[in-house]
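Input sequence (183 aa), recorded before submission:
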Amino acid sequence: MKKHLIFIFLVGLTVPIGCSTSPEMKRPLKTVEHVDLPRFMGDWYVIGTIPWIFEKNNVGTMDIYKMRPDGRIDITYVFHEKELSAKCQEMHALATVLDRKSNARWGVQFFWPFKAPYFVIDLAPDYSTTIIGYPTRDLIWIMARTPALSDSNYQVLLEKAASQGYDLKRIVKVPQTFDRAGN
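Predicted structure, token format:
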């Protein structure tokens, strides 16, 4: 049953999710000029998100990126269901960089043949924070290298999301105290 739900969701990713016709929704998301892929690899804690169906009850979430020899990227999505004390679980995906000039547009595949768009729309110069966007603005991931951000830093990232047309009322903060050991 879970595979069927994933299939239905991924089919939905290939068509526009949002129904808004606001001017922000009509303009394409602006990605960062360049992503240094080796520097981008590693652990990213999800601090805020508009969760997709399989993230709605997840806490202590993070993405782990690992470059493959063929240039694609292994993604491990790590999470706890509902409570930080719950057993640590994982989902795996494979990303392909679609724009080799900027490395900021990826196609993420949980299973063949569907690839969801994944756009790096903000990236701190020191690679400490990033924002990943989705063209219809129905999904977003505000991430950091640490499990916590100051309120002021989080507000700055929310403002950047708003400047790209995101509805901040839809973004939820993800409870975090996660460590790699799953505690």
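Checked by second reader. Residues 2-11+39-173 form a domain with the Lipocalin fold (CATH 2.40.128.20).
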